[in-house]
Structure formats: C-alpha cells, structure tokens
Design a protein that fits this description.
Length: 113
C-alpha cells in the first residue's frame, strides 16, 4: 500500500473517508437521509447506514448513537435501526408539525404566495 488515504464518494458525490469535509450536521442529515433511499427495508444495520450515507462506520456509530439519544432513531432488538415517529414525520414532509408555532405560521404564509 502506498500509505495514501483513499477517498471514496457516495452517488451524491459526498466523500466517505477521513477526507470528508462535510459538517457534522451534514453527516447527521446524511444518516437520516439513508432511510429515504428507494428500498422496501425500513430498518438498517450500522454498516448499511454508513454505506448509504457515505460516512465512515466509526462516525456512523457515534452519530447514530446521538440520533437514538435524541429520539430520532430507534434500535431494534436485532441491532438494526429505524426512524422514530419524529423522523418519519420529518422524512415524509410533515416538518411543519415539528416547528415552533411562529415558524409554522411563517412557513404557511410562504407557501400561500
């Protein structure tokens, strides 16, 4: 091996190695977005989440733990993860229900223009 770090990319063009320059927030949303990939599987292993999100497995492990702690993902008995009700609402476009009332009103006004 040459000692150089290789840099893989996801289909969206995001780096998936140590050279990944996305912010932590971008990686968190990439993990959540992994559940929107066209698939009949709703629960994913850490490896599958890592692959779909283009995030290294160790980082995926840490960030998924944060999603679970926050309540955005739930861990099944078999070790797979699935979106919680909060995340399902977010993923299905029902974001407005998660927003503060003043944000809901502003969003509704913008949509009516």
């Amino acid at each position: 091996m040459s000692g150089k770090q290789t840099k893989s990319t996801t289909p969206e063009g995001h780096a998936g190695s140590a050279g990944d320059d996305r912010s932590v927030a971008a990686k968190l949303f990439a993990i959540l977005d992994a559940f929107t990939a066209p698939s009949v599987v709703t629960a994913l292993t850490l490896t599958a989440i890592s692959h779909r999100a283009g995030v290294p497995l160790s980082t995926t492990h840490r960030l998924v733990a944060e999603w679970v702690k926050w309540g955005g993902l739930t861990r099944q008995d078999d070790g797979r993860y699935e979106p919680s009700l909060i995340s399902c609402r977010f993923l299905s476009g029902e974001r407005i229900r998660l927003c503060p009332r003043n944000t809901q009103q502003r969003f509704a006004n913008e949509r009516s223009v």
